[in-house]
Amino acid sequence: MVASALPVGVEVCAVVLAAGEGRRLLPLTAHLPKALCPVGNVPLLDRALDRVSALGLDTPATVAVNACYLGDQVVRHVGGRAALSVEPGDPLGTSGGVANLRNWIDGRGVLVGNADAYLAAPGTPPGPDIAALLADWDGTTVRLLGQPVDGPPRPGDFGRYRFAGFSLLPWARVRDLPVEPTELVRTVWRPAEVAGELEVVEFSGRYLDTGTPADYLAANLHAAGGGSLVDPTAEVTGELRAAVVGAGAVVRGTLHRCVVWPGGLVRADEHLTDAVRAGAGLTVPAPAVRTSGR
Question: Could you identify which of 87, 118, 239, 290 might form a hypothetical disulfide with 68, taking C-beta atoms 3.0 to 4.6 angstroms apart as the criterion?
Answer without folding.
Answer: 87
